[in-house]
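User: Study the chain.
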Amino acid sequence: MRGRSGWAAVAARTGLARPSTYQYFRSRTDLLDAVIVDLLLRWSTYVTQRMRRASTPGDRVLAYVAVGEARARSLARGLLEPYLRQPTG
């Protein structure tokens, strides 16, 4: 997707015509909100799965911590950085 940004990139990534993307997201803010909701749901599922594998309460805490701040930061940065560099509109 190099060289493409904004709605053109969204349309290309989803296989939709650019005008069709507006049927799903009225603005970049709406798109960003949807990305964040999806990210949080996936993150929550991942953390819950890791914690369920632990056998004691202490191990569950350690599993939660092991998932880690670094992983969350990396995911958020990778998903959100391109949108944060775009002008709003």
